[in-house]
Structure formats: structure tokens, C-alpha cells
Structure prediction request, 390 residues.
Amino acid sequence: MLHRHTLGKLPAKPHTAFYEDNQLLMEVCVTREGFDGPYSILYYRIPPTDEFEVEPLEIPGFAPFKLTDRQDLYRRHILSQDMKPGGNFLTGRKTLLVNDDVHIGVLKPTEAPVRFFSNGDGDELYFFKEGSGYIESVYGILSFKKHDYVLIPKSTPYRIHLDGNTGVAMVFEGRPYLHIPGEYRNKYGQLTDYAPFSHRDFRIPMELLEYDSAKHGEETYPVVVKRNDVLSVHAYKHFPHDVIGWDGAVYPFAFNIHDYQPKTGLVHLPPTIHTTFAGNGFVVCSFVPRMTDFHEKAVPCPYGHASVDMDEILYYVEGNFTSRKGVNSESISLHPAGVPHGPHPGMYEKSIGTKATRELAVMCDTYKPLRMTVDADTLEDKTYHTSWVD
Prediction:
């Protein structure tokens, strides 16, 4: 998904016999789009196929989640800052907004991880508003820090360890994929020099996952799998993530939002220039501090917008928001297609003469309408739609 990487021991050629201490290792190919997309090849000491028991599992608010019965058309404000912390990286996850292409949720864990999780419905993109730590996966150890994006490829078994078991994260589940936009690559696959980031900005696993009975337990070894929004727990006789080496282009990576390179124009540019990741029918954008437009009569505040084809959400991280009043860190605004939206009264004129922005936010635009879950409904500021006139 980023570039080819190799870690650990590998045979000279794929699909050939490879031994460790006279034991034949199991080669496992992880492929996307059948065999036409990116892939990685992993070598297991013990084949990850000795599951002997499968049981159902439910994590209310994540899988399953419940949609609101009715969703009238108006601008909305979800106060995710009021969501009660709890659970771990998996059990504390709440889905707030969904459509066929992307599920969007929030996570505020207070407990250590227990089971590995594999999402068979799509790639996952975490944005860590608060917290640091590391991720264990079959691809190795990946550290992350505050304001990092972390992309976990579809069906990757992993666990998230947060320092102090606390943090705040927004999660995008791209169904079936989420990746770096193709327009940022040249025909050879390399990120172009005019892309808003470079290969050097991304961090990838550099250390293999080593089995430790104190950390990973003894028989049996459970892995939670999600497919078609249904969870199941798969129990294994052996630790199913014991990999001696791998290579390929499918693996987790981290990218810090402050490494995003924003663009500035003569006059205000549309939010398209902030695109960071893309999925099927949606994009994820990064708003970072930047110099504003330099025309002598430029209006730096975003102009009014009739979003007739896309829903737009904005997750406010920190800083001063040039177009909004009454929003704070962790606020999520939803501006649906069909309803014009723009700056709050006074903010448009107030922005004239501003030389730089100091806001940090994550945006997601979707072609298909976003539906709210009952968890989002309980967090909604019902007065937001009328805040342009009240």
C-alpha cells in the first residue's frame, strides 16, 4: 500500500521450500483484489490454520450497532467529547456514523488489550487525538504517538497497546479499502514530489512480533474476527501470529498529521487540496496550521458551500476554528448533502486580514449519505442547526 518492505528471514524466491531448524515453514500470501492488487508473503513457524473452536461475540455499539429510526435533514453536531471512556481498543469502540462505504467511530479506552482483532470488512484508519503506544500485528511492532494516523490493512490480526491504557481515537473503516490517493503517485508507484507527503514521513514495522507467554498467554489463543458486521471468536491451539519473516506491500503504517504539507493559494482553495487518504466513495482530509491566501482582498474563512453530492463531517482536534462558534475539541459536525453550509455569522468578515490558521482537524467527505447510530444520537447537540440564527 505504501512501498515494498521486507522484515526478518526470507527464502531467495517465493513459493519455494523454506526451513528453520529442519522444520518446513508455511508460506501464506495476503493478497488484495484477488491476485491483481498489492500483496505480502508471510512465513509462519506454525500454520495459522489450527483453530478448533468458533464462538459468536457481540460488542454493543460496535458490532452490532443500531441506527436511529429517523434522521431528518439538517446540520448536526455530535459531542463525542461527552462519550464515556471505557473498555479496551476493541470493547470500547463505538460506531457513530455509517454508510455502505465507510463506518466512522470513536474510541476512548481505559483498559489493557486482551484479544487480537481482525477486521474482515475493510481497512481501518485510526487517528489518535490523544495517546501513544504500540501495535502488535502479524507484521511486527509499530509504534505510534499523539496525532498519528495508523492504517491497519483488512484482515490483519492486531492489538493496540496505549501507554497508561488511555487515549482518544477516531476510527474510519473503509469498506473494502482505504489507501493513499492514486493521484499522489507516479506511474512507477513512487510518491510524487508534489504530493503532500513523502515516503520518509511514513513509519512502518521494523521489529517482528516475538511470542511471549507472559504477554500472549498459553493455549488457547483467541482472535476476534469481524465479517459482515458480525463478530466471532476463533480459538487456536498454537500462537497464530508467529512469523519468521515477510515481504510485500500490505502492512500497517503510521503517519503524523503534522507532517502533512498544506498548500496555500492566491485565494481560498477548496478542501480537496487537504485530501490525505481515499476509499471507495469517500476521502479523509487533514486540516493543519498553514499560511493563508495572499491576495490583498482574500477571505481566508471557507466560503459558503451547497454540498449537493456529498455529506461532510469534521472532527475538531485543537486550535482556533475560523468558521465555527460553539465547537470544541472532539466535536464532530455533520453537514449533509442538500443543505447549504458555511461560516457562522461574523466569522467570514472576521477572517479578513488573517495571515495564518491555527486549527487542526480531520474531515471526511462521502458520496453516500451518512446515517447516525443511536450512540451518536445520544451525544447530539440538538441546537446546532439553528446556531446560524440564534
Notes: The mean pLDDT is 93. Helices lie at 213-216, 347-350, 374-378.
